[in-house]
């Protein structure tokens, strides 16, 4: 099994263009794409590769790129989403810190393929040092003629700008991000219109996750068939799994789609801390539904996790051992969504707060048995009824916890206290 | 033109029409808070969710365009559950203070709770506390706890008044409507936000707690404050006006009106209304019956020889009078008195690009159309005033007091003192009426029927909403009575009959009749 995204991560100064170019393939993909391929050929290649977005929804990247208008009647933009804010997710940060030039390569190729001359990288505000590293890399790329006017002597021009966020999770939602770039309050836009027709500044825009762009140079260098050979039929390529929680070796692991959750936890992440008993795993970031210990044979790809009633999300695996209070988990997660909802849609503004209030009350030992059905009903009224998916993201973990750990909620209610001795006050 | 089905009803609408608009236009009710026909679409309240076949999720009717063969369900079980859900979410932190809320009776929350809500509460948490009843502008009180964050007020101030002082601050359940620091909700149309606020969050300082709205009856009329002629509803209980509300007319005022016009209802019931005919008795003016006052005028208009000499008489009409009244006044002066000294004065003031017009009267256009101006060598206002000192003008019949707002009003008043005889017909006491030999009390626009012609030549009807105070009468009735006493009868049962006469005489008005005017006006080629 080959690592291509992270292969340079262990090399000294891997974030510099010097090291990147010395590794043989550096910026070869840009050269090939700009000089030997038409934009259509690139988009076809990405389509053929089966590359799916790595930001959570898993939308086919090539298809998304093909939605952009082909003419140049109006300016077009690319947004690279580096607002990595989903609790448990920290993979994009690694690419920025360790190998930003493969990202820049992907952005140049994408821009060329879609006829874009301006790219915004929206990076979460807390990634201050990462923004510096990224800016250094961009400066190096300008100095070496990969960015700016007449890239590599062609008539293609491209500028990349970093836009630092102000610390709001909702600005990672694609249209919330665009509002934020425009200097407005971070609130998702109603759709339609969709970004491909009405994006940043009202112009056609394609937005992809940072990791998604980072796969592109490898696909161009080695072909769609090579990429398709990795992973599963419908989830192609490697992806970055960020493992956190009660494991011995938390961290980011580059593995092909389809690897079993069990293998990730027990082989790559070294198993559970103190060899404790595994209790539950959130497989794809905080919004995805929790899995129980007996479900970890599941393969980590879009289809398999959907069949298991959850989602691959951003591949952010949060592992919890038997000491974990699941009500407390619900409380922490629902507080997060309550805090981060923009508040424009009624269901999300009110529902996130109400769910958090109820779960916090249960954790304090003041719950009633009726609260559990109310929680599920609130979740069902929130799900699918709002402008963006934050409402769903808030509803799913609660639904997941109540599906598999309802007895634990009931125990809190029965005992009128949290049965976990080390659970802290809410 | 897409053809589609809403609730088993086949409908055709223009391309680009939203489901919500198509439904409302066809009498199908889809509840909504944030949608407003005259504002951009926001899509945040989620109350208008409907089920469209072949779409995986419910969709908001306000932002979904109709398409051929679309099948929409507005009352399916899924939709009803979502609506009940929105209602529950809106109400869990709402104070439920309907008994003391001024919006009661015209509140969307009440209405939809009744239609779509559930009768019991499952909410056991402590309600969110927010700021209560504080001033956010000269005319407006805000209650944050009642606010449902539909953002209509935000959009109004950005898109309509174009002042942009209102915004949503903070986020999530801490969101609140606020005003940018150092500013107030003080644009000239700010009270429109109380109209479009679907709940009791934004209320009018002037109107709140005066009356429960369900006791009010509404009469369609026209705002009298400027020549734009904004369409209004006069809201009345027990012969007292409590407020004006704007009424939709897309050719005139959309659904808006300015604060000044809205608050001008106070003029109707003010303490300085003239309620009885007055005649001069030494230094004083004393009340008399109509017959006596009219007889004195008939006598006063005659010279020492007992004849009416029109060349020394002038008539100054009013841009506040209706077309019908202007028409009668002109005919009275020209035919009964025999003078061409006819004119009117109009006050000018602040104007903007939206609704507020420079001419501060409802009907200067109509006064012009009714030819209330000097003709055949007759005098205009300045010549009439100037003619007093030379003895050229000895008698004046003046309706209204706009004259006094012209420059040199002191001088005008002094000149008027030299007249042989002065009749002033007006709604309110003024320096001018105090100078008069006879004062005739007239009705305001709210106390009579008639038409105004606005700045764009749209003839619009006003309708009597309250009785004139005391013995006061509409101008048309006064002129009609006076004319009869003068031996030149012009008798009409109603302004509508006068309009039929106008149509015969004034070419631009030949197609005008009350039925055709309706409640949206009739465009004429105004002079």
Keywords:
heterodimer, A: 426 residues, alpha/beta, Rossmann fold, Ubiquitin-like (UB roll), de novo design (two linked rop proteins), 3 domains, five-stranded mixed β-sheet, four-stranded parallel β-sheet, 43% helix, 12% strand, B: 527 residues, alpha+beta, Alpha-Beta Plaits, seven-stranded mixed β-sheet, 23 strands, 25% helix, elongated
CATH superfamily of the largest domain in chain A: NADH-ubiquinone oxidoreductase 51kDa subunit
| Mean pLDDT across every amino acid position of chain A | 96
What is the distance, rounded to the nearest whole angstrom, between the alpha carbons of the first and last residues of chain B?
A: 40 Å
What's the story with the biggest beta sheet of chain B? Answer: 7 strands, mixed
Structural class designation of chain B? alpha+beta
What features would you describe in this structure?
The complex is a heterodimer of chains A (426) and B (527). Chain A has 426 residues and is α/β, with parallel strands linked by helices. Chain A has 3 domains: 17-228, 3-Layer(aba) Sandwich (Rossmann fold); 238-321, Roll (Ubiquitin-like (UB roll)); 326-415, NADH-ubiquinone oxidoreductase 51kDa subunit, iron-sulphur binding domain (de novo design (two linked rop proteins)), CATH 1.20.1440. Chain A contains 17 helices and 9 strands. Chain A has helices at residues 17-22, 28-36, 39-49, 61-66, 91-98, 100-114, 128-143, 174-181, 210-222, 224-228, 261-268, 302-307, 326-340, 346-363, 370-382, 390-404, 406-415, and strands at residues 77-82, 118-123, 159-164, 205-209, 238-245, 251-256, 278-282, 291-292, 316-321. In chain A, the strands form 2 sheets. In chain A, strands 6-5-9-7-8 form a 5-stranded mixed β-sheet, with helices on one face. Chain A has a 4-stranded parallel β-sheet with strand order 3-2-1-4, with helices on both faces. The longest helix of chain A has 18 residues, at 346-363. The radius of gyration of chain A is 22 Å and the shape is globular. Chain A starts with 16 loop residues before the first helix and ends in an 11-residue tail after the last helix. By secondary structure, chain B is α+β, with helices and mostly antiparallel strands. Chain B folds into 3 domains: 3-75, Ubiquitin-like (UB roll), CATH 3.10.20.740; 126-267, Alpha-Beta Plaits (2-Layer Sandwich), CATH 3.30.70; 278-523, Rossmann fold (3-Layer(aba) Sandwich), CATH 3.40.50.740. In chain B, helix 8 (323-337) runs parallel beside helix 13 (475-485) and helix 8 crosses helix 14 (495-505). The radius of gyration of chain B is 28 Å and the shape is elongated. At the A-B interface, helix 13, helix 14 and helix 15 of A face helix 2 of B.
């Amino acid at each position: 099994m080959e690592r291509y995204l992270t292969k340079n991560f262990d090399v000294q100064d891997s974030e510099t263009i010097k090291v990147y170019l010395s590794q043989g393939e550096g910026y070869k993909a840009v050269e090939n794409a700009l000089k030997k391929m038409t934009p259509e050929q690139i988009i076809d290649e990405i389509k053929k590769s089966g590359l799916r977005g790595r930001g959570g929804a898993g939308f086919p990247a090539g298809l998304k790129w093909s939605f952009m208008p082909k003419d140049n009647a109006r300016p077009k933009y690319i947004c690279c989403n580096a607002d990595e804010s989903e609790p448990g997710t920290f993979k994009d940060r690694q690419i920025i810190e360790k190998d930003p030039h493969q990202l820049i390569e992907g952005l140049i190729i994408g821009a060329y393929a879609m006829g874009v001359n301006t790219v915004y990288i929206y990076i979460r505000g807390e990634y201050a040092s990462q923004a510096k590293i990224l800016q250094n890399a961009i400066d190096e790329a300008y100095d070496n003629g990969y960015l700016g006017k007449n890239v590599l002597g062609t008539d293609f021009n491209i500028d990349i700008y970093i836009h630092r966020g102000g610390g709001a999770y909702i600005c990672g939602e694609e249209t919330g991000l665009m509002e934020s770039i425009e200097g407005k309050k971070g609130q998702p836009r109603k759709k339609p219109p969709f970004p491909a027709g009405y994006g940043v500044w009202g112009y056609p825009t394609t937005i992809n996750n940072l990791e998604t762009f980072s796969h592109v140079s490898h696909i161009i260098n080695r072909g769609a068939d090579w990429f398709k050979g990795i992973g599963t039929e419908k989830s192609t390529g490697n992806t970055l799994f960020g493992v956190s929680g009660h494991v011995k070796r938390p961290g980011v692991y580059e593995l092909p789609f389809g690897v079993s959750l069990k293998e990730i936890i027990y082989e790559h992440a070294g198993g559970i801390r103190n060899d404790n008993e595994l209790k539950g795993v959130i497989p794809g970031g905080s919004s995805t539904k929790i899995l129980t210990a007996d479900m970890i044979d599941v393969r980590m790809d879009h289809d398999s996790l959907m069949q298991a009633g959850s989602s691959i999300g951003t591949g952010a695996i949060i592992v919890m051992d038997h000491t974990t209070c699941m009500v407390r988990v619900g409380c922490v997660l629902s507080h997060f969504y309550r805090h981060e909802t923009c508040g424009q849609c009624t269901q999300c503004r009110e529902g996130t707060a109400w769910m958090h209030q109820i779960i916090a009350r249960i954790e304090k030992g003041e719950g009633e048995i009726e609260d559990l059905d109310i929680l599920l009903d609130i979740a069902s009224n929130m799900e699918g009824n709002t402008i963006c998916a934050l409402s769903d993201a808030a509803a799913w973990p609660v639904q997941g916890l109540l599906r598999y750990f309802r007895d634990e909620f009931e125990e809190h209610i029965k005992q009128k206290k949290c049965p976990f001795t080390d659970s802290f006050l809410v | 033109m897409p053809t589609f089905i809403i609730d088993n009803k086949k409908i055709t609408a223009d391309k680009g029409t939203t489901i919500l608009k198509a439904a409302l236009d066809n009498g199908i009710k889809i509840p909504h808070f944030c949608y407003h026909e005259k504002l951009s679409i926001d899509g945040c309240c989620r109350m208008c969710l409907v089920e469209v076949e072949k779409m995986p999720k419910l969709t908001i009717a306000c932002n979904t365009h109709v398409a051929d063969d679309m099948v929409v369900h507005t009352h399916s079980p899924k939709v009803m559950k979502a609506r009940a859900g929105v209602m529950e979410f809106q109400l869990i932190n709402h104070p439920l203070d309907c008994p003391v809320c001024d919006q009661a009776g015209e509140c969307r929350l009440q209405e939809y709770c009744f239609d779509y809500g559930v009768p019991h509460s499952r909410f056991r948490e402590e309600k969110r506390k927010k700021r209560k009843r504080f001033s956010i502008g000269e005319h407006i009180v805000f209650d944050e706890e009642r606010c449902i964050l539909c953002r209509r007020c935000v959009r109004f101030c950005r898109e309509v008044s174009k002042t942009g002082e209102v915004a949503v601050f903070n986020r999530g359940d801490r969101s609140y409507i606020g005003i940018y620091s150092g500013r107030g909700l003080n644009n000239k149309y700010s009270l429109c936000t109380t109209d479009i606020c679907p709940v009791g969050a934004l209320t009018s300082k002037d109107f709140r707690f005066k009356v429960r709205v369900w006791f009010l009856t509404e009469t369609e009329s026209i705002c009298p404050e400027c020549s734009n002629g904004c369409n209004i509803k006069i809201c009345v209980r027990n012969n007292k006006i409590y407020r004006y509300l704007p009424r939709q007319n897309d050719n005139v005022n959309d659904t808006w009106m300015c604060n000044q016009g809205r608050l001008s209802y106070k003029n109707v019931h003010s303490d300085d209304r003239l309620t009885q005919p007055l005649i001069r008795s030494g230094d004083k003016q004393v009340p008399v019956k109509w017959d006596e006052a009219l007889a004195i005028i008939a006598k006063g208009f005659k010279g020492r020889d007992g004849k009416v000499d029109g060349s020394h008489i002038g008539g100054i009409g009013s841009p506040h009078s209706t077309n019908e009244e202007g028409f009668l006044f002109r005919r009275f002066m020209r035919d009964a008195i025999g003078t061409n000294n006819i004119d009117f004065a109009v006050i000018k003031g602040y104007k903007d690009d939206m609704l507020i017009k420079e001419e501060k009267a409802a009907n200067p256009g109509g006064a012009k159309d009714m030819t209330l101006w000097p003709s055949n060598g007759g005098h205009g206002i300045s010549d009439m005033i100037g003619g007093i000192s030379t003895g050229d003008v000895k008698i004046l019949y003046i309706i209204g007091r706009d004259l006094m707002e012209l420059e040199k009003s002191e001088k005008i008043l002094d000149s008027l003192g030299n007249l042989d005889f002065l009749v002033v017909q007006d709604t309110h006491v003024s320096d001018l009426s105090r100078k008069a030999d006879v004062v005739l009390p007239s009705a305001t626009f709210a106390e009579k029927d008639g038409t105004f012609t606005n700045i764009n030549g749209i003839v619009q009807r006003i309708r009597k909403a309250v009785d004139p105070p005391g013995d006061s009468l509409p101008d048309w009735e006064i002129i009609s009575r006076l004319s009869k006493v003068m031996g030149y009868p012009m008798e009409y049962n109603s302004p509508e009959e006068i309009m039929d006469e106008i149509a015969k005489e004034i070419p631009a008005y030949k197609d005008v009749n009350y039925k055709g005017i309706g409640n949206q006006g009739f465009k004429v080629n105004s002079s």
